[in-house]
Structures are given as structure tokens and as C-alpha cells.
Protein 1
Amino acid sequence: MRSVATPVLPVTRNATATSAATRLSGWGRSPVVEGLERIGEDLERLTRDVSLTRGLGRSYGDSSLPAKGGGTIASTRLADRILAFDPETGVLRAEAGLSLFALNRALLDRGWFTPVSPGTQFVTLGGMVASDVHGKNHHEAGTFGRHVSRLLLRAGSGDIVETGPDVERELFDATVGGMGLTGHILEVEVRLKRVNSPWIWSESETAPDFETLAERLVDAGRSWPYTVAWADLLHPSGRGILVKGRWAEPGEAPTTKFTWPGAVAIPFDMPGWAINPLSMRMFNALYLAKHGRRTRTGIAHPQSFFYPLDAILDWNRAYGSRGFTQYQCVIPKESGVAAAAKFARLVRETGGLPCLVVVKDFGPEGPGVLSFPKPGITFAIDLPVTDVTPGLVARLNDVVAAEGGRVYLTKDAFTSREHFRAMEPRLAAFDDVRRRWDPDRKIRSAQSVRLLGDNE
Amino acid sequence: MNVVFLGATKGIGRAVARKLAERGDRIALIGRDVEDLKRSAADLEALGGSVPATIPCDLLDRATIEPALASAWEALGKVDAVVVTAGLFGTQDALEADADMRDRVLTADFTNTVHVCEASAVRLIEAGGGTLCVLSSVSGDRPRKTAYLYGAAKAGLSFYLEGLDLKYRDAGLKTVLIKPGFIKTGMTEGLPVPPFATVPEAIAPAIVRAIDRGTGVAYVPGIWRFVMLAICSLPKFVMRKLNF
Ligand SMILES: Cc1cc2nc3c(=O)[nH]c(=O)nc-3n(C[C@H](O)[C@H](O)[C@H](O)COP(=O)(O)OP(=O)(O)OC[C@H]3O[C@@H](n4cnc5c(N)ncnc54)[C@H](O)[C@@H]3O)c2cc1C
Ligand SMILES: NC(=O)c1ccc[n+]([C@@H]2O[C@H](COP(=O)([O-])OP(=O)(O)OC[C@H]3O[C@@H](n4cnc5c(N)ncnc54)[C@H](OP(=O)(O)O)[C@@H]3O)[C@@H](O)[C@H]2O)c1
């Protein structure tokens, strides 16, 4: 295999060009659709006549994929310039294709970090807005959209509109978490967070069963900005690990110069056998055993704290040619930890699942009209795609809908329209905004056809 | 370092300019759309560089070249290097079919790039020396059925740059000829991706190193030196058969 000395952004490799059309997929590599993707530096031009805009394709399902008759979609990957940065206030304005990967490398060492980070850096600002992403600090910081002060959008009508919490607010709120369906995001302005050092102080501990894990998770949120839990739902107890973190103070940080781990090659054509489901499962099973009983404390690099999976660049291939999906839902706080524990047992009983499941607690809901998080406990579960996947997702959705919870669109590929409607009383408000700004429904995606009833 | 940069707005040039900015270089940007140059200037400044000027210069309009260089020199005071990454591409089919496009590609990639180099060389030598770094292409090393028109412009450019280096290195002009292999940029979007393809960020450090060292010829990524050695040694009857 080739190795390149500099860390570079891995490009989602789906460019097996078949005549003009390309095979496009999200991170889960399922579904795969034929479509035309247009790419370039000039987003204003690129988005003039496309049906959807996507970023780095790190959403798992079909949200970044064209509808069947959707024609061409735009990719923002090359539109990645910082347009303004104020080192006094931390306000950054950039083209929508700027990646978190580039942003981290440009600014963390100078004391600035994204206010909210998903579990991978290979995402764009536009994608972070459209999915209204959450991080380990949701209980404290809310979603990414809460920190966005301006969005420059091309609406479906073709108009270019500057929006924000205080200007064209309706359109802004619908765009935050709107999965690209209200317009093409051209530029994003966001307030970054000041940090005292680029290092993380982290503590982790094991919990003997799911109830204890969930209670401690919620508890830890009262004193720690970053919290996350990994639950072993293959084990009858639902035991797990709780990880807590905060930015290190300069006195605690290592004195060596901060650098990002290098030597990450771009695996354009990494052989599929480099990692396989078996090795992945073993890795998961060893994870808990390795941690041991005691509490671990210490300094962690932000790469390993926030982006443990980014080191394995192409891990999505591990699930084989049919791809995989991630099922992520939230069980509302009103239902209590007991309901979350019941859901965890259901997940275990449905069987055939990978060992580790990511669990987080959510704070208050944000203003994003279709934004996913609401107070409660969220589960993120990787599932290899097989013939039984749709049925499995439906069974989980029955429970989630009954509890008043919902699923995360950026991960979803299998939820039915009926389940979605049952979970989404906010849909009418979203449709209103779309009717107003995109009367001809020019903008749509494979997902909006599946879930929102748009025309193919 | 003080650099005059033509082509920093996109692709390989954007990545190289960012590397220079990260280490605090001063860069005068020249290019055909001043509004867009200003957006690139903001990006480079956020990364730690400084951009004292953004100056109009259209590679398809010879008359804009000398005035642009003059303004850039004035803005920077002293110039250590001129970097040219601007260029145009056309597929073989398009260039055979469209005489206007053929004219533009040959003019931008050969004739007017030579004019930029001549004018820069004079200024650099006058000031006691400096570096001139220009992106040609591996396509100029050997004609292939699928890229000989674009390749001819690049072959001419490489030929010219090697000559410039022979004649003026002793006078202090270091000519750095860069030959990229297939790089995924807006220019190559939609083309079939050959082996060893990579992205601009992966080759930018090697280009900056070549500029700093005054390397005469640099293939980026380095493997292309051997690939082209092999391709150049193929007999003509084999080249007639190959469709790449
Ligand atoms: C390993 C991994 C970990 C993750 N962890 C988390 C996590 O902790 N929390 C979390 O919230 N998410 C997480 N995600 C999901 C990810 O953050 C989101 O899917 C994100 O939106 C992906 O960004 P992207 O640039 O790749 O967008 P894409 O996947 O390309 O697109 C996602 C959606 O955004 C829309 N979109 C993208 N750019 C634009 C634009 N410029 N204008 C309009 N619409 C646009 C697309 O149409 C699509 O609907 C994770 C994903 C992975 C692979
Ligand atoms: N990509 C490859 O695989 C590859 C391989 C070998 C060699 N090369 C060579 O490397 C160079 C850069 O290629 P790239 O892939 O980075 O291309 P690119 O992404 O298309 O960028 C081309 C750059 O040239 C500028 N430019 C084009 N026409 C111009 C004009 N008339 N006046 C002024 N500037 C002009 C563009 O500026 P605007 O912003 O104004 O458009 C842009 O900055 C080119 O010379 C190319 O031939 C590329």
C-alpha cells in the first residue's frame, strides 16, 4: 500500500464512473444509487440548477443522495475557504465545504475549537448545519446550529438569501437540521469555542449494568462538558464504559509541542480485506476487557478523544459489499432511565448485533424545525445490512414512536414513512417553509422521496 | 518568503498557497477575478499568511501580465519567488473538435505562461536572483493518443523551462519545473482515475520543498518519475496500441 507523509482528507470513494453517471452512496454504502455529482470551487455557480447539495458523504443513509429523477447534485468538497476569522471573538465565516479536519488543523493549536463536534472530522460545515449535529457535549452546548449566526443559502426558488436567528428566521430554523431540503448552504458563520489548551483531560470507568451506566452518564453531565457511554448490549447486563472529558488547563497539558497525528494515507483503493467484520467484532469485544475495572484518568489527544474511528480511514468497508446502517434514536427523558433500559434489552433480544452501542444523554431541544436531539437518552447502533434489517428497524421504531422518541435522519435508511410521520409532529411546519421557498419542489433527495413523500 | 502567485484560487495552487501561508509567507495574489482573489486572500490570512495585494491578471490576455507583475513587485517590495499554477485543460476529443478551445489551451498553457516566465525572470535576475516555480505536467513527457494536444503545450513549456534553467541558474534564477501526475481537482473531475492518483494536499509539501531547495525538476508524487521513465522507454508501435 502507498503511504503519503501528510495527513489528507480521505475522499469518499464511489467514483466508479459509469459513462456520465456515478454510483453514489453515503457512509454506510447502502443504498447505492446512480447519479450525477458536480464538483467545483464555485458553489454559487454549482448550485444554480442542482436538486441537492452534499458535503463529504459521511451521513450513513440516503439523505445526501439524489432522488431518482433528481438529475445532478452538487458536492461542496472543493468549496472550502475560510472567508473571515476574528481571533478576538472566535467568529468564523467559511464556504460550506470547509471540513472539520481542516478547521481543527488550522485553529485548535491557536485556541479555537468547534463548539460542537460529531465523532468524525471528515464532515463539512454545510453537513454539520444540515444535520444539526450533536457531540459529547449536547447536554451543555446543544447542537451545532445553536452556535451558527449566519447562513448564506440558495433557496429552491434560486434566490440567494442571508439567514440567521434574527434574519429570515423561519428559513434559518428549517435549514438547521433540514437535511439540505430547504436550500443549498453556500456559507456558514459560526462562533467557535475558546479552549485553554489543545489537550483533553479525560476520565473513564466501567459500569456493571445498563441502568447504572445510564444513571452515571446523566449524573456526569452535571459536572463534565463532554460525556459518552459505550454499552455492551450483547452481554445480558448491558454493562459498559463511561467516558468523561474536559479541556485540559495549560498546567496539566504536556509540554511537548501539540501536533495532529500524521502519516494518514488516502486510501483511494484500499483493499477490502484490510479490515473485516471478524476483526472488527474482536476489536469491539476486546475494548471492554482491556479497560479493566479501575477508573482511568489522564491526558488524551483530541484526535483519540473525539475521533477514535478516524484513524481507521475506511472502516465502513468492514461490513462487506451490502454495506451497513446506523440506527440512532432518542428515548425521551419523560420515559425515564427504565424505558431506556427496556429499549436496550429489546436491542439485545433482536439479536445479531455488533457488541458496542454508543449512548449519550441529550439536553434541551434546539430551534431547528426538524433537528433530531431532544432531552433523553440516545442510542447509536451499527447494523450490517441483511435481509432482516428493515424488519429490525421497524421493530425498534415501534417502540421509539410509542415512547414519543424519534430517529436521526442523517443516519437513517430504513425507517418507513408511517413511522416517520408518527414521530414527527413538526413536519407540517417544515413543509410550510419548503412551500414558501421552493414552490416547485426543485430540491429533494432520495430520503425526502422515501420519508417526506416528495416526487421521485 | 515573499511570493507572487498566479493560480492560488483553485486546485493544486490553492493547496500550495495554503502551505506557504501556514508558515507566514507574504503572498501577492494575481488572477483573473479580483473578487475571488480576495476570498482566497482571506483564507490564506486566516491560516497565518499575509496577502498585501490582489491584482488582476488574465492568462488569456497577454497585455495584463506585465502590469500585474509590476503591481505585485511594488506591493511586496522584495520578491523571493514567483509561482505559476494557473493552467487550462481540455480533453483530446474536445481540443480536436474545437479550434477556439485549442487556441485557449495552447495560449494559456504555453505562449502566455512563457510570457509570464520571461517577465518574471527579468525582474528576479535584476533584483539579484530568486525562484520561478511553474507547473507543467507528466503529459508533456511523452505523447499519448488521449492527451497529445494538451501534452504538446506542456511539452513546450517543460522544454522552455529547462532551457531557462540552463542559461540563468548561474545568474541567480532558480527555475523549478514541477510535473504533477494525476491529481484530483476540478480540472480532472469526471476523467477516469488512473493509478497513483492523489489530492492536492498530498503533493503541496513536496512542491514547497522544491521551491525552497530550488530543485530543477520535480515529479509529484515522486513515483511518476519512474512511471514516465517506463512510458518513455516504450517503443512507438506499443504506444500506437495503447489507449491511455
Ligand atoms: C464515524 C462517524 C461518526 C459520526 N458521529 C456523529 C455524532 O457524534 N453526532 C452527529 O450528530 N453526527 C455524527 N455523524 C454523522 C455526521 O456528522 C453527519 O452525517 C454530517 O452531516 C456529515 O457531514 P457531511 O459533510 O459528510 O454531509 P453529507 O453526508 O454529504 O450530507 C449530509 C446531509 O447534509 C446535507 N448537506 C451537506 N452539505 C450541504 C450544503 N452545503 N447545503 C445544503 N445541504 C447540505 C445533505 O444534503 C445531506 O442531507 C457521524 C458520522 C460518522 C461517519
Ligand atoms: N490536476 C492534474 O491532474 C494536473 C496534472 C498535471 C498538471 N497539472 C497542471 O497543474 C496546474 C494546476 O492544475 P489544477 O488541477 O490545480 O487546475 P484547477 O483546479 O483547474 O486550477 C486552475 C487554476 O488556474 C487558474 N486559471 C485558469 N485560467 C486562467 C486564466 N485565464 N487567467 C488566470 N488564471 C487562470 C484558475 O483560476 P480561476 O479561479 O480564475 O479559475 C485556477 O486557480 C495546471 O497548469 C495544470 O495543467 C494538473
Protein 2
Amino acid sequence: MPVLKADFAACQGYANCVDAAPTVYDIDDDGIVVLLRETITDEERPRIEEAARSCPVSALTIEDE
Amino acid sequence: MSRTVVVIGSSIGGVRTAQALRSEGFDGRVVLVGEESAMPYDKPPLSKQVLAGQWTPDRTELLSAEAAQRERIELRLGVAATRLDIAAKQVHLADGTRIDYDNAVIATGASARPSPWRPGSGVHVVRSLDDSLALRADLLRDGPVVVVGGGFIGAEAAATARGLGHEVTVVDPMPTPIGRVVGPEIGQYFTELHHRHGVTTRFGTGVEGIEGTAGDLRVRLTDGTELAAATVVVGIGAVPNDEWLADSGLPIENGVMCDEFCRALDAHDVFAIGDVARWYHPGHREYVRVEHWTNAVEQGVCAAHNIARPDDLRSYRPVEYVWSDQYDWKVQIVGRPTRGTRHEVVGGLTGVKPRAAVLYTDEDGHLLGVVTVNWPKALVQCRRLVTDHASFDEALERVTTLDASSPPRPPRPAVPAAPEALPAAPAAGGDHG
Ligand SMILES: Cc1cc2nc3c(=O)[nH]c(=O)nc-3n(C[C@H](O)[C@H](O)[C@H](O)COP(=O)(O)OP(=O)(O)OC[C@H]3O[C@@H](n4cnc5c(N)ncnc54)[C@H](O)[C@@H]3O)c2cc1C
Ligand code: SF4
């Protein structure tokens, strides 16, 4: 199952990910990304991949486990 | 039969379009053409982390050779497209070759508006990686810096130059330069932001001429005064890279004219996205061109979808979003603030690292746009509210509630004593400008 990863130190709170995929990404009070789930399904992957690629600092990745 | 998509322009818009074609299930050939020979790189850090020397240029890479191979994106870098033949469906390249396409995506972006003042040396624009590195080399030498233009690029360059220890003056003919985006009243706080960081501003004053050479420049202003400068940065806007399409027959009006599906008017197999595209925004009911990073990505995804799924055309009606890092301000702007006639501030815009959201409305009481400073959480909420056409009153109430429920925290120390103990601290970046 594809696994969501985030580089919390790189995240700058630009929030593009939250806008593109609000069911898996959110942002905390400090403006740092929060992963709402650990894994996603293969069907969701293309949509979440596009959300991850909308991060201006490439903080988000999806890995195969 | 396998189709070929040729994407012209290899920066954020072009790269994300090529990748999105694969995510959307397009199985044909994808060719990415780029004028610059460097591997595709990203631009926002060029006036921030790269200029400040906090990031090495390789951190701006958008697509590695391995990733391109994995996603079956054929790279044709270091060669400009010179012509688009829409009848023969071919892209002509500077090396004389021609590529046949079924769909072409124009993603050639924009160039910095060239400086009208050209002394011997020492005057810089910031658009490409080479520009940023050349400016940085000059900034490593001592001497005052004059920045012409107080927009995003100018303000960021000023903040970065100041962070490197230079005496900096920003000159702009507008009374409050960022006023075009946030309105004159809120623009005033941006002027104060410069002053708080020891940068001099000469707003409401134009430049008449620049003489001398790097290290010894004189900037003559319209009020008759003269500023000495070692280095001058000119950030006076961008012009779309559409001149190579002049004889293509495509309608061009300060950008490639497109319909709401990102397709060129009169040539539906050609798409344009990013800084170079002027398209019909069905929500705004007018043609717009947007020079924001997120727009290039989202429009690329929309074009890719419409190419991969012509049976399911999606119209492109984004809510504008742009960020800018200036000194200790992380500024985020959503929607179209200056279309408003009235605004309300939640939080504060003064002092060290303030936190605020400014909401803009029109006579009808709609929320038109929001400017946030150091408050990503409010930005997320406001982006949704603008998207949902929320009323101004409802939005104001929500943001006020958010403000009460999570009071601002004390600013983080500029240099954390033990970085490993603070995993959530932002990476060294725009905070220091
Ligand atoms: C210094 C700087 C800082 C910025 N900071 C921010 C920010 O903080 N936030 C934000 O939202 N936006 C920011 N922007 C704006 C954002 O970077 C642009 O909106 C974005 O780069 C547009 O992407 P694009 O792919 O449409 O065009 P571009 O990035 O301009 O890329 C176009 C590409 O096409 C190539 N090209 C041009 N002509 C040809 C040709 N004939 N043949 C082949 N290739 C060609 C160019 O070499 C270039 O690689 C910044 C821009 C700059 C310059
Ligand atoms: S888009 Fe990137 S920088 Fe922005 S909140 Fe998401 S992970 Fe952080």
C-alpha cells in the first residue's frame, strides 16, 4: 500500500497540499503539515500524487511499502 | 495509435504538466523541450534562499534525469522552440529539427522586464538561476544596494540583500508599491516592514537614469537626487515569452489567448499554461493571466487532464494564490483583494513577527480576497472560504474564532539552540529573507 511521507522540517506552510487533498493533508497551528492518514489506496494515488507535487518545497512524497 | 504531446518550456509549469499527463493515465509519448540546458529548476528560491546562499542551486531541481526516465518524459534541453506550425502540427527547434505533435502545451513562462537603464555593469534582474547567481556574486562584495521596484521580487531581493548586511534603498514610483496587490492602506504596513528592518524607501519616486559600473553606480531619481550604489537590482515586472509564436497564427495578446479549458483559441490541440497563458476564467468572466507558482502547477494539471481525457473536459477556474517571504513576514494572498472596497484586519500587523489576516469585501458583502501574514492556518481556512463564495461576515466570524482559539505563539528564536529538539521548526529559509 502506498505510504505517505512528509519532511516536517522542510514544510513552509504554503498549504497547497491541504487545498489539493484535504482528506489526507492538514496544517497545524504552527503552519506545519499534518498527515491525516498513513497509507492511501492505489486508486487514490494519482490524485494524492498531484497534491504532493503541488508542494513548493517538495516536502511530500509517496512511497511503496 | 500512440499520441505525442510536446511540452515547450521546462520549468515548473512544463515539468508538472508532463508529470500530470502520466498521473492522468496518458500512455503516449511525452517530450519536454527547454531553452536552458540546466536540468529543470524552480524559481521562487532564486530571490530568497539561493540568493541568500542558504541553499545550493541543486536544491531547486524540479526533475532529475532518473525521474524523467521513470515517468517516460523525453528531455530536449538546451534548445529553444523557434516556431509553432499549427497546420503541420510541428514544433520547430533552434537546432533545425522539427517534432510532430498531436498536442502541444505552451509553457514558456515569462522573462524579467529588461532594465531600461543599461550602464556598463552592475545592474541585475532576477528570473533565471544564472541571474540569481550573478546577483549573488555582486552581493558578496561590500557597498550599498539600490532596488528598483517594490513588488514581490524587489521586496524579496531587498530583504535578502539586507540580510547579507548591505545598506539597501528601495525605489518605486508608486506611493505604496505592494498596493497594487493589497491596497494602499495595507501597503503602508509593507513600507513599515522595510523600515523596521533598516531598509530605506523612496516610494513615489521614479528612476531617471543609472550611470557607472559595478561597484560604482549612480542612480538618478526623478526628484533630482542621486543614490550611490555598488549593485542595482531591477524588479519591474515580467513579460510573457510569446514572441516565438508571433507567426503561428495563434491569437496573442500579452500572453497566449486560451479558452476555459486551457486550449488556445482557434487551435484546440494546442494548450497554454502558466505565466505565458491568458485564459477565459469562467468564474471571473474575463481573460486573465496570472504569474504565480501555484497557478502554473494547477493549470498544468488541468491541461494534462484535458489532453488525457478529451471526453471529460474540465474548465479551469482557480482561486488565485501567491506567497512571498519578506524579512520575518510570510505573506500569503488568496483571491483578488484589490477588487474589494473595504477590509477588516484580524490580529496585528506591527511589531516583531506579527500574525494577521486581512479580509477584503465588496458592496455586496462577498469575501473577495484575503492577505495573511505569518498565519498559514488562517490562510487554509480563507482559501476554502473564498472558493466557496462565503459572505464577508461569515468569514470574519470564522477567522476571529480561529484567532481566539489559537492565540499567537511567541516568535521562534532565529537560531534554535538545539535544532534537533525542534523537528517542526521551519527550515532555514525565507524567515531571514
Ligand atoms: C525570483 C522569483 C521569485 C518568485 N517567487 C514566487 C513566490 O514566492 N511565490 C509565487 O507564487 N510565485 C513566485 N514566482 C513566480 C513563479 O516562479 C512563476 O509564476 C512560475 O515560475 C511560472 O512558471 P512557468 O513554468 O509558467 O514559467 P517559467 O518559470 O518562466 O518557465 C518557462 C520556461 O520556459 C523556457 N522557455 C522560454 N522560451 C522558450 C522557448 N522558446 N523554447 C523553449 N523553452 C523556452 C524558459 O527557459 C523557462 O525554463 C517567482 C518568480 C521569480 C522569477
Ligand atoms: S504544500 Fe508543502 S510546504 Fe505547504 S503545507 Fe503542504 S507540505 Fe508544507
